[in-house]
Amino acid sequence: MNYPFEIMSNTRKPGILINLLIPFLLAGLLPALCAQESDNTVSKVNRFGGAVTIQSKGISTIPNLTLGKPAIVFDMAVGRKLTFEPQFRFALEGKPWAMVFWWKYNTQVSNKLRLVFTTNYSLSYKAMTYYTSIGTSQEIIRTTRYLAGGFEPNYQINKYLGIGVYLFYTYGIEEFITKNTYMVSFRPGISNIPIAKNTTARMTPEVYYLKMDDNEGVYLNARLSVSNRNFPVSLSALVNKPLESNIPSEYDLLWHVALSYSFGGNYIKAP
């Protein structure tokens, strides 16, 4: 997660609990890389894939947090119900923006209801100017760390209409950054909108409440994506508008467009 308004202060070492929790979360990679078997006779289909996305403005997991300039994002995913999904974000000029290591568990409760549990450990990078004792300046990149967890129930009403809720929490490990971030989102979705042969659009309006330490706000967000089932490149756009907020931001109206190339498929673990 990349916060555009971090406040510097004296730093303290993270607590023992955090130091113990990070290796525990990293250990979650192992089950995701292995085939997840529920019986001894049937091989389970897993998936491996990813995407490369070029964005006009780098957009974070929470839409109102942005890099503010063109970015490129690399996504990967491996697993079945439990997936490991690392994400690497860079400014288009090549400077690192963030690395997010997602673990997601998907469970299909019924034909219409799906639950997704998520957690991640992320590193955020920010370029800063450092002035030496002799008056010269040097650019350095500061790294900050975050732990996050989320819950996302999704209900598909029919082929075209679905509704979802997203609950998300992030804890900032360093003392000089935003410590506690809460997000509650309502996401209806309209999918399979016909555009042309084999080409469809998906529209996802969203209303979400965001609290970052002592600041809070309510936002309206809308996403539109267009894709072709026979072509790996898709186009998307996003608009984000605060309805009422005291969270500092450079943008009253944030928008961006993105072009994505997707790849991957299914595989079965050899016996």
What do you see in this structure?
This protein has 271 residues and is mostly beta strands. The protein has one domain: Nucleoside-specific channel-forming protein, Tsx-like (Outer membrane phospholipase (ompla), Chain C). 6% of the residues lie in helices and 62% in strands. Strands 1-2-3-4-5-6-7-8-9-10-11-12 form a twelve-stranded antiparallel barrel. A hairpin with a 2-residue loop joins strand 9 and strand 10.
CATH topology: Outer membrane phospholipase (ompla), Chain C
Distance between the termini: 39 Å
β-strand percent reads over 45%
Provide the domain count.
1
The helix-strand sequence is HHEEEEEEEEEEEE
Instruction: Identify the CATH class.
Output: Mainly Beta
Q: How would you sum up this structure in a few lines?
A:
This protein is mainly beta and about 270 residues long. About 5% of the residues lie in helices and about 60% in strands.
